[in-house]
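So, does this match?
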Amino acid sequence: MLFSRRLTDSIFAWLFRAVSFTGAAALGAIVIFIFVQGSQPFIFPGADNLRLVFERLDSVTVNGHVYENPEGFIELPWDTKTVLVEFVNRGEEKSLEFRLAPEKKGKTNLLLPIEPGTGEASFPDAYTCSVTYPGIMVGLNQKIHLILPEPPYNFFKFLGGLEWLPAYQKKYGIFPMILGSIFVCFGALLIGVPIALLCALFMSEFLPQRVTNIYRSAVELLAGIPSVVYGFFGLMVIVPFVKQTFKTPSGNSLLSATLVLTIMILPTIIAISEKCLQAVPRSRREASLALGASKMQTALFVVLPHAKSGVLAGIILGFSRAVGETMAVILVAGNSAQLIKSPLEGVRTLTATIALEMGYAEGRHSQMLFAIGIVLLVMILILNSIILFIRRRGDEEA
């Protein structure tokens, strides 16, 4: 009997260790993957070489090298100064020359003007030049694309840049989105914290225990509602209210996002604060009342200060939820990646940018979205550090 009990304990101990190790390893792998993907655009260029792409050309000669039925990329060294393309268009032999000015760290500039002859040059984005020649039939145009390597992006330009234009100009400034996230979150705290604390005090100090249990269940139920439901409520109720009240063209704005997040963080802060207030020793209340203080004075100046560590932790947890919120903000914020001058203008947060663009982003664009994830991860780490510091300080005071 004793042997079987020890065997069972040993099996479960190894099982718990295996599960814990697997969970920790998976979490570590995810963090490492995010950091690797997010750091690449600041360390490495977008490509190591120049790339040429041809459409509807059977044979081309590039700097003296003949390519039959070219498919995919034709790569050239990034420091190439001249790219001469010879081909046949409508039975005539033609040539196209690209003049380049290589710089350091893999950066290459295309010198203008380009002389395409009967072709037409265009620039789909900041690092691509396309030259189109008329084909033998409409819709069968021949095209030559020169793709320059994107140099490593400046990290401080990423954090402090004011423009997010990933499609054409390849600008990845997230400062407006950082400010948008901060404005939305701190606005929600500014409105929600006083309401949440008053609700927690009312439940803890003034309501009968039976009624408090009912209210506590309702608060916990609100905390479990999916964020998309809050977002839909904001889209159908708060956005029209803001639009009609302030006579704005659109109710999707910073104010609408702030109000929705305020409603979302209330259950978290109320639930944690109420439990911390309930944990205050009854002797503190009785001593205050014995000295002649009213019940309201006792609640505000005795009970609340004694539970400040737990209350602050609840506030920070509510702030953490506001920072990571995505769906509700997407539905009501307006998603405009620009600096705002009024709370009635649309904003975009960091999480909204990832959710909106990750589905179609590729290459450098996708890596920049991972870099935004790193910024969010650092913000959450800072918040968790603050929580640990507050708890440690509260334990020392206790």
In short: Residues 172-397 form a domain with the MetI-like fold fold (CATH 1.10.3720.10). The chain has two domains: 49-152, 172-397. The CA atoms of residues 121 and 131 lie 4 Å apart.
